[in-house]
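Sequence in, structure out. Go.
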Amino acid sequence: MGEFKPKIIGFFCKWCSYAGADLAGVSRTKMPTNVRVIRIMCSGRIDERLISKAFAAGADGVLVCGCHPGDCHYQKGNLNARRRVTGLKPFFEAIGIGNERLRLEWISASEAPKVAETVRSFTKTIKE
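Output:
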């Protein structure tokens, strides 16, 4: 039958997280290929419907990555993302999806190793 390979959707901020993921790729950093990255202008653009739609479409996990607090190119976009993700976790727990299947991480453009570690640890969490 084979090993379970989770489908993970990653919403990555164009300015920081996506640039960090790009650096990880250019640096040939080894990491699982389970995450399908969607580049967004700001993690603050993520709303509850996008995350819910990803799960409804069959995602096993959703990873939202944005700039570190205080470094957002849109000033408070990442704080809006944190508010939304934090608010969604109890809902997903209540409906049986589980709150551990949704993760928010702050990753800057220079943190390629953190991108790889985040993908590895989130993939491991979803597999378990």
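Check: The first strand starts at residue 8 and ends at 13. The mean pLDDT is 95.
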